[in-house]
Structures are given as C-alpha cells and as structure tokens.
C-alpha cells in the first residue's frame, strides 16, 4: 500500500531576521524579560525589593524587521494605548540546559536592537487581575527588531536610546540591567532547553510611552545596526 500521508495545508514559513552579513538568522522562540531596569520598575508603579524578573514569550510570527523599503509596523487592534519599549536582543547560536553564567555568552551568535511593542491598557488589566500577559505582549508585529550583528561582546557601557519623531524618550546602558545578559541566559536555561535560533529580549529602561499612527521611531546603540520604523 502506498503511503499517502501529506500535510493538510502548506507548512508555515520560517521566520528569519537579517544579519549584517548576507546570512539570515532562523527564529525558533522568543523569550522576553520584564522588570529588569530599576527606574522602569518605579515608573510602572512597582516597588524595588519585590520579585523582579518576569519572563514571558512571544510567537515567532510576532517578529518584524522594518527596512527603508518597508518601514511600517502596524498599530494593533484591541488597544488605545500602544507603548514602545527599546531593548537589547540576544540571538542564540547554541544552547543547552542549566548553562552557567560564565559560559552563557558563548552561546550568543549576535546582538541586535529591538522594540517590545505593548498593549499597555491590556497589560494593566492582566496585572490587576493576575492574568497572563499574552494579549498585551504576544500580538502580530509586537517583536520589532533590527539586523543582528554577529559577536557576543556586550560591554556594560554599551549605550542605546529610543526617539519618537526626533525626540529622545529612552536612553540607558547595558550595565544598568538588574539581571545581566549572562544571568538572563543562565536563568532561562533552568526552565527551558535553549537552542540555536532563540531570541532573548533583555528588558527596557525607563521612559516608555504611547505611540500613535504616523509616529516615527528610531532606536540606536553603540556599534549596533539602527532600527527605524513608522507606526502605520
């Protein structure tokens, strides 16, 4: 008897992110951390000394990489309070379980700038009701990012900033993260087997705020490819 097993419909496309070379980085999973900068915790009404790190995930099809030819990021439905959150993104080239902090950065293929788009009104509803953050964080085109620069050098004085319509709204250095990049990778690997293709958004500093249609956003960082997009 001939085996006629087939896919019921075409397999989903592979999500990729460009690198500064000619290669494409295939995305496997997207991990994010909240409450990783002290001043951002305070601006959101939190108190230092509480449990800080909050991990959540986004689906791979939330990734969007704007270009000069396709600069638009869609304003999502079901919100009237869309916020930007500038972040450093780690792209893993390998992984494992129970990775040590000393070994963590050896698993990083490259680094990029990103923007964790957030339905803030829905996040506050989730926070107040104890519900998950999925509706607030895991929507289409919510994981905006620029090209990945190969290499795992992430000095504490690496600075990055976000501006809206030419006005700077966020600026910080990597050294102000409460959980360092190696610590984030090590902690995640206690809960998941990390693998090549995983992306890690490392948290946002203070200065988050709303976006409206037509706003032009730019994120820059020392030695990293800039990220620019328009809210459509």
How many strands in all? Answer: 18
Name given to the CATH homologous superfamily: Fumarylacetoacetase-like, C-terminal domain
**Mean pLDDT across all residues, rounded?**
95
CATH architecture identity? Alpha-Beta Complex
The CATH class is identified as: Alpha Beta
Fraction in beta strands = 25-35%
- CATH topology value: Fumarylacetoacetate hydrolase, domain 2
Global outline: globular
Q: For the CA atoms, what is the radius of gyration?
A: 18 Å
Helical residue percent?
10-25%
Largest sheet: 8 strands, mixed
In terms of structural class, how would the helical and strand content be classed? alpha+beta
Please count the helical segments: 5
Order of H and E elements: EEEHEEEEEHEEHHEEEEHEEEE
Overall domain count: 1
Sequence stretches where pLDDT stays below 50 over 5 or more residues: none
Q: Give the N-terminus to C-terminus distance in angstroms.
A: 54 Å
């Amino acid at each position: 008897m001939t085996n006629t097993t087939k896919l019921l419909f075409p397999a989903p496309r592979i999500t990729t992110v460009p690198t500064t070379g000619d290669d494409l980085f295939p995305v496997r999973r997207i991990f994010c951390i909240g409450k990783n900068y002290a001043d951002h915790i305070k601006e959101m009404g939190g108190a230092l000394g509480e449990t800080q790190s909050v991990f959540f995930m986004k689906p791979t099809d939330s990734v969007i990489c704007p270009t000069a030819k396709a600069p638009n990021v869609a304003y999502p439905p079901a919100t009237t309070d869309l916020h930007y959150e500038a972040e450093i993104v780690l792209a893993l080239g390998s992984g494992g379980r129970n990775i040590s902090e000393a070994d963590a950065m050896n698993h990083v293929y490259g680094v990029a700038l990103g923007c964790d788009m957030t339905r803030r009104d829905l996040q506050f509803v989730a926070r107040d009701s104890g519900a998950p953050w999925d509706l607030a964080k895991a929507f289409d085109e919510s994981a905006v990012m620029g090209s990945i620069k190969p290499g795992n050098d992430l000095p504490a004085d690496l600075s990055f900033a976000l501006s809206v319509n030419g006005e700077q709204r966020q600026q910080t250095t990597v050294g102000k993260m409460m959980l360092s990049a190696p610590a984030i990778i090590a902690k995640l690997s206690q809960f998941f087997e990390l693998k090549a293709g995983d992306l890690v958004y490392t948290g946002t500093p203070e200065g988050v705020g709303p976006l409206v249609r037509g706003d032009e956003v730019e994120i820059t960082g020392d030695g990293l490819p800039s990220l620019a997009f328009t809210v459509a």
